[in-house]
């Protein structure tokens, strides 16, 4: 039988879920409204350029812009001819991508590529352009330390790496250490740390707010977050690779519900359009699925 503390935790989660469903009504059964087949064998990352266009990168040196009908509208070859690791767009709509092997962050304007930031001794993974125009970059050092760096233009202005006790906020880095990040609308920085089995959330100053390691009633397999985004109501959405489902949390890390009825296969990259439609990249199928989960 559950302990008194566990019963209170479960009851709190139920009431939070009920309140949220009344305030921001979810669809009973979220549904796939678009299914886009790309030319990639493996998908890494994507970002919404608009409500009808997606920049997508995968296991080759070409970054492609797709329509929701699966039509390729534009393509860009990386400056170094390495595979790009992740993509995002600036507030003006320009494309940014990371080059893990070249240790660089690159800006694409009108198909011209300009190396924007070089990070000697570090390898950039995932990145996100914030509401203020700053750039957040997740990166690993050669000795497998991990940090989030904030840039204004190309100037480093903040490093997020340690908690108040001097312990690492994130699991050790490395080539197969996948960590995804996003800024919430309340300016929290949310990281899906796959190796740690946790969503790690800090405030704008870099102070730890919470770690989410799964809902009160555990799923069949360990929580393995890959991909993360936040919506217009400050909800946090993260993919669970092992269980092939999506967790929706409130801004304080309370579990609200799953998206678990859509036959996801190895969900990874995430993004949302202006209407809170969710796009999920499937790592091995080369597909992107568009979900509606609000009424």
Brief summary:
The chain is mainly beta and 295 residues long. The protein contains one helix and 24 strands.
List keywords for this structure.
295 residues, mainly beta, four-stranded antiparallel beta sheet, 1 helix, 50% strand
Describe this protein's structure:
The protein has a 4-stranded antiparallel beta sheet, with no helix packed on it. The chain starts with a helix and ends with a strand. It is built from 1 helix and 24 strands. Helices cover 7% and strands 50% of the residues. It is mostly beta strands. The protein has one helix spanning 4-23, and strands spanning 26-37, 43-50, 53-58, 62-67, 72-77, 86-89, 95-99, 104-109, 112-118, 122-129, 135-141, 146-152, 155-160, 179-183, 189-193, 198-202, 208-212, 225-230, 236-240, 245-249, 255-259, 267-272, 278-282, 287-294.
Task: Please write out the topology.
Elements lengths: L3 H20 L2 E12 L5 E8 L2 E6 L3 E6 L4 E6 L8 E4 L5 E5 L4 E6 L2 E7 L3 E8 L5 E7 L4 E7 L2 E6 L18 E5 L5 E5 L4 E5 L5 E5 L12 E6 L5 E5 L4 E5 L5 E5 L7 E6 L5 E5 L4 E8 L1
Antiparallel strand pairs: 1-24, 2-3, 3-4, 4-5, 6-7, 7-8, 8-9, 10-11, 11-12, 12-13, 14-15, 15-16, 16-17, 18-19, 19-20, 20-21, 22-23, 23-24
Radius of gyration: 18 Å
The N- and C-terminal alpha carbons lie at a distance of 37 Å
Classify the oligomer.
single chain
Order of helices and strands: HEEEEEEEEEEEEEEEEEEEEEEEE
Please give the share of residues in helix. under 10%
What is the structural class? mainly beta
Strand content: over 45%
Principal-axes shape call: globular
Q: Could you name the ranges where pLDDT drops below 50 across 5 or more consecutive residues?
A: 1-11, 13-18
Largest sheet: 4 strands, antiparallel
How many helices? The count is: 1
Number of E-type strands: 24
The largest sheet has its strands arranged as 1-24-23-22
């Amino acid at each position: 039988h559950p302990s008194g503390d566990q019963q209170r935790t479960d009851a709190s989660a139920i009431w939070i879920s009920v309140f949220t469903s009344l305030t921001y009504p979810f669809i009973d059964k979220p549904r796939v409204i678009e299914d886009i087949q790309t030319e990639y064998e493996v998908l890494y990352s994507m970002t919404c350029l608009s409500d009808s266009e997606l920049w997508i990168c995968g296991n080759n040196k070409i970054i492609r812009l797709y329509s929701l009908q699966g039509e390729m509208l534009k393509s860009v070859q990386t400056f170094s001819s390495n595979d790009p690791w992740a993509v995002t767009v600036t507030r003006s709509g320009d494309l940014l991508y990371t080059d893990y092997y070249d240790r660089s962050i690159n800006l694409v304007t009108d198909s011209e590529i300009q190396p924007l930031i070089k990070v000697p001794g570090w390898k950039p993974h995932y990145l996100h352009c914030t509401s203020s125009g700053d750039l957040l970059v997740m990166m690993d050092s050669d000795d497998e330390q991990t940090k989030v760096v904030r840039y204004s233009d190309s100037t480093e202005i903040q490093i997020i790496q340690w908690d108040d006790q001097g312990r690492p906020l994130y699991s050790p880095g490395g080539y197969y250490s996948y960590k995804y990040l996003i800024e919430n609308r309340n300016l929290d920085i949310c990281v899906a740390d796959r190796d740690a089995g946790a969503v790690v959330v800090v405030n704008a100053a870099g102070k730890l707010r919470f770690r989410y390691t799964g809902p009160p009633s555990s799923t069949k397999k360990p929580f393995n977050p890959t991909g993360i985004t936040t919506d217009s109501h400050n909800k946090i959405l993260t993919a669970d690779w092992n269980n092939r489902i999506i967790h929706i949390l409130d801004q304080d890390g309370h579990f609200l519900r799953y998206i678990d009825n859509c036959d996801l296969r190895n969900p990874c990259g995430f993004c949302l359009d202006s209407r809170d439609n969710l796009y999920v990249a499937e790592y091995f199928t080369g597909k992107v699925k568009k979900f509606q989960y609000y009424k």
